[in-house]
Amino acid sequence: METAMAKKYYPTVGETLVTKTLANGLRVLLVPKPAYHQTYAMFAVNYGGIDVRYQPAGVSEMVEDPEGIAHFLEHKLFEKEDHDAFDLFGQTGASANAFTGATSTAYLFSTSTKLSQNLKTLLDFVQMPYFSDKTVAKERGIIGQEIQMYQDDPGWLLYYGIIGNLYPGHPVARDVTGTIDSIAKITPERLYQAYRTFYQPSNMTLTLVGSFNAAAIMAQIADDQAQKTFAPSTPIVRGVGFDGDLATILPYRAADLPVIRPKSAIGIKGQVDVQADLEGTKYKLAIEVLLEMVFGDSSPLYQQWYDEGLVDDSFAADYIAGRTFNYATISGDADDPSAMSDAVAAVIARGADQPALTAERFERILQAALGKYYMSLNSLEQTANQLSSQSFTGLNAFEVVDALKSLTLEDVKAAAVSFFDVDAVSVFHVRPEAKA
């Protein structure tokens, strides 16, 4: 349903957000920054690597696409029958790119000149697909080389190894590029079917941050969309993407590679279904603060383990949450990977009984997190990224600051109780190959 253009000022961050939902369902987010000379634009779709099982419009049953199709589609949208969109951006001096994640795909450009022209290029190449047998066959070779390059990377293997332990069989445990075998099954027909299902304007968000007149840009976007013909919007029915049990966890696996030092990863599978709302966002923030308080490089544990030679400066803890998954990874290089993973698991087993969870330390970590967030809003790219990713949850990046400011130590301790579950822990090691 079309909405009127709305403008809201967020005093906490000193930013103004202009929003409008067009008649075709496309949501537009604009953040004018008059003091900047550049503009960053991102056209995102709520469709990513895990979305391999779905019900196409007009079809009564679920279909299952080959792994890697969302990433493949992202690559192919740039190439048209008689031109490449990258060339059009290059002619104006704009820088363009795209990326595919587990749950979304985004197309973007940054420019300091000819914004209207570049914006039209972005809208046109994303909304006018062209796939042929010839171009699809060529792309298989290009992406195939990309896949082979990743598969030889120890860090890549460690990351997907631990996710594979936490979510065996789930598409989140496989790289969005797919496999050599899976991309061989991608055809123009499959690409068009996935495109028609997910690239509906109502399943997309267009975000611009930078130097522009919001009313003029909004008018250009609305006019562009009004001149195009779109199929009626239909509900998107997604499947989980695998037939396994979401509760299953593989406790341990290892791989031998030609590495000098071993690598260790400890994964924690979230047992709470994180909702895409303000409370869910606050829970995610609590987990991130918890991990920083307990495992961050300013924590007593990190300092002790570093001094003992158990970890080095590659040691890091991260938390990821999305549709049907949420997990933490604590990983790094280690001379004794088993000693490192055992030490981390012992800490997790203590639940909320963590010496690092003090009021003084919480305040310090919270202020650092707020400072980092405020700094990120000085970047056009990061602001657009955050607004775009949050838009599919019904929130916006400027509201996240208030959620972070309202966080308490008790919220973090409650998150530790639910998240630090020793039965939800898994370990993956990358070991040096035995010498012949």
Automatic annotation (TrEMBL):
GO MF annotation: an example: metal ion binding
Q: Check the record and name the InterPro entries matching this protein.
A: Metalloenz_LuxS/M16, MPP/UQCRC_Complex, Pept_M16_N, Peptidase_M16_C
Which residue ranges does the record assign to the Peptidase M16 N-terminal domain?
65-155
Q: Which residues form the Peptidase M16 C-terminal domain?
A: 185-367
Record-given protein name: Zn-dependent peptidase
What is the species listed in this Swiss-Prot or TrEMBL entry? Answer: Lacticaseibacillus camelliae DSM 22697 = JCM 13995
